[in-house]
């Protein structure tokens, strides 16, 4: 019996799609009201999720952009000694928080300043190495902008021993980091809550489907259908409902997003020079996530329903 | 081949067992009636064969396999060895006669070609070729039962089990159904028929097993109804 069983199992998997797809389509049709409710719930969930996802992607992009431009400047006292400079440099280089450190001498600072103020160069021509008003500094890039504070503390421990003061866009970094955290957390909360709602609605749809087809299921069992064969159409049905919702939600979001981008015309009202993520890249991520999510939600909902209502 | 070895089945601790220490042997190719009053344990007997339920004690063998020892995954393959016919037909209303029979082949993964070849043969065997494209509600009870029989034998089971197959049919139709079952048996399939129909049992002169309150009371090879009404 075992041997025969394996051979039959194999052939039943081979020809399964034909019947399963047909029965699934019939079932979605028959349950059209609940099916529509399921798809709508997935659409609603995904539109809300999509808004958060787009927000998160863009906030992350802006944060990354700003982060990459962020530096911390440690200005040295005008009378720092070589020993002091070396001690500070070593301390900075030893720290894990710091990606790289470059030293900028007073001469270099003056030169840079002169270049950046090209039009006024003649005004600055009176300054030379003798009366250079610019301080020397260490320019530090940190690995993680959240660590700016700590690096500042580290640098300030040398205050009066070579270090004059430390500067970075402190308030701005803090605001950005906490906003980024906030959108991430919010997205996850929204994701979990909406997922549960969608799974529950799909669960109920599939429950109805199982109920509507219980006679058929009984007959299938007597004729020797395997459990996998009996379950397949229900899981397929749930997954399809989820995918349909995903596609519709994506189209709605895509149209709306490009429309809004067109309205604001790239003007982001951001206080910094940073750009949004490329809309095409955002949409690429979105459709990928939506399909995955829609299919997953649908499958999970049906698996729960089958476990509870299909005694196989 | 069906064998029960000291099978006891109790559903409820507070009630007496539905089957009590039943032992019996039905050989390959036999035609057997199973009779007994309502509640005697006939359906329990069938459910044990199909492994819908498990024996409380003892073992059930089908074609030398201990049914009680099958894993859940193997049960479908056990059922493919058996055809089953119910009193209440259990046809799918939204499928035609042809589709109802074909369905049993689809489920176990037969190819469209095999289905197209075998379904008409099975319908011919039960005398329903001309009704192939009709739907169950367009058929008489006897015709519906023929469809069920065609579906039950479509995958060439070695055992055909019928739970009151004539229970809803008039005497004449009942005889037609029984003679179809006889023909199936003649081609080598073991047939077990649960019935209340005393006349049919007496006429057929087949082996009769009689259950009374879960006890196998009579095992009569010459075919007499084993209890008085
Ligand atoms: N699922 C069940 N739960 C509890 N008791 C049951 C169940 N099925 C049958 N029984 C009891 O077992 C006995 C035998 O029932 P059954 O096998 O259906 O008899 P028959 O088919 O001969 O009428 C009866 O007393 C019945 O009440
Ligand atoms: Mg019964």
TrEMBL record, chain B:
Protein family according to the UniProt entry: Belongs to the ABC transporter superfamily.
User: Which controlled-vocabulary keywords does the entry list?
Assistant: ATP-binding, Cell cycle, Cell division, Cell membrane, Membrane, Nucleotide-binding
| Cell compartments where the protein resides | Cell membrane
Q: Which PROSITE patterns match?
A: ABC_TRANSPORTER_1, ABC_TRANSPORTER_2
Instruction: Give residue ranges for domain ABC transporter.
Output: 2-229
Principal localisation: membrane
Q: Write down the NCBIfam families for this protein, in alphabetical order.
A: FtsE
Name under which the protein is recorded: Cell division ATP-binding protein FtsE
Bilayer topology annotation? Peripheral membrane protein
Which InterPro entries does this UniProt record tie to the protein? AAA+_ATPase, ABC_transporter-like_ATP-bd, ABC_transporter-like_CS, ABC_transpr_LolD-like, Cell_div_FtsE, P-loop_NTPase
- Give the GO biological process terms: cell division
Q: How does it assemble?
A: Homodimer. Forms a membrane-associated complex with FtsX.
Question: What exactly does this protein do?
Answer: Part of the ABC transporter FtsEX involved in cellular division.
Extract one GO molecular function annotation from the record.
ATP binding
């Amino acid at each position: 019996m075992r041997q025969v069983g394996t051979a039959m199992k194999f052939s039943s998997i081979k020809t399964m799609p034909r019947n399963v797809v047909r029965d699934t389509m019939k079932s979605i049709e028959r349950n059209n009201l609940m099916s529509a409710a399921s798809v709508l719930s997935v659409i609603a969930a995904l539109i809300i999720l999509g808004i958060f996802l787009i927000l998160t992607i863009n906030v992350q992009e802006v944060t990354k952009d700003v982060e990459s431009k962020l530096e911390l400047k440690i200005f040295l006292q005008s009378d720092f000694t070589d020993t002091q400079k070396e001690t500070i440099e070593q301390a900075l280089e030893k720290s894990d928080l710091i990606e790289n450190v470059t030293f900028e001498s007073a001469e270099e600072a003056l030169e840079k300043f002169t270049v950046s103020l090209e039009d006024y160069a003649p005004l600055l021509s009176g300054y030379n190495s003798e009366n250079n008003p610019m301080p020397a500094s260490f320019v530090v890039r940190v690995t993680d902008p959240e660590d700016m504070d700590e690096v500042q503390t580290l640098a300030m421990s040398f205050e009066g021993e070579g270090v004059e003061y430390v500067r970075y866009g402190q308030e701005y970094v803090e605001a950005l980091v906490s906003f980024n955290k906030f959108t991430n957390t919010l997205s996850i909360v929204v994701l979990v809550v909406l997922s549960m709602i969608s799974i529950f609605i799909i669960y109920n749809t599939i429950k109805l489907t199982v109920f509507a087809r219980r006679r058929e299921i009984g007959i299938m069992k007597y004729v020797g259908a395997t459990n996998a064969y009996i379950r397949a159409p229900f899981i397929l049905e749930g997954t399809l409902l989820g995918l349909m919702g995903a596609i519709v939600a994506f189209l709605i979001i895509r149209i709306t997003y490009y429309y809004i981008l067109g309205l604001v015309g790239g003007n982001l009202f951001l206080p910094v020079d940073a750009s949004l993520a490329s809309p095409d890249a955002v949409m690429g991520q979105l459709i990928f996530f939506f399909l995955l999510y829609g299919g997953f939600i649908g499958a999970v909902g049906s698996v729960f329903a089958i476990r509870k209502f299909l005694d196989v | 081949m069906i064998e029960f070895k000291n099978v006891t089945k109790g559903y409820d601790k507070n009630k007496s067992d539905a089957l009590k220490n039943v032992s019996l042997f039905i050989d390959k190719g036999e035609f057997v009636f199973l009779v007994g009053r309502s509640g005697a344990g006939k359906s329990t007997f069938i459910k044990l064969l199909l492994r819908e339920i498990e024996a409380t004690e003892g073992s059930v063998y089908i074609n030398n396999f201990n049914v009680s020892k099958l894993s859940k995954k193997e049960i479908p393959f056990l059922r493919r060895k058996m055809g089953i016919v119910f009193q209440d037909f259990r046809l799918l209303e939204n499928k035609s006669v042809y589709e109802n029979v074909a369905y049993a082949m689809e489920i176990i993964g037969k190819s469209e070609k095999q289905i197209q070849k075998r379904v008409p043969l099975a319908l011919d065997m039960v005398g329903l070729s001309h009704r192939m494209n009709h739907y169950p509600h367009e058929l008489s009870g006897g015709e519906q039962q023929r469809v069920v029989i065609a579906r039950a034998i479509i995958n060439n089971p070695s055992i055909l089990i019928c739970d009151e197959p004539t229970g809803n049919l008039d005497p004449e139709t009942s005889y037609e159904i029984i003679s179809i079952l006889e023909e199936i048996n003649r081609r080598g399939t073991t047939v077990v028929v649960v019935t209340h129909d005393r006349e049919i049992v007496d006429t057929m002169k087949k082996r009769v097993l009689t259950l009374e309150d879960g006890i196998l009371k009579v095992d009569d090879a010459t075919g007499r109804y084993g209890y008085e009404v």
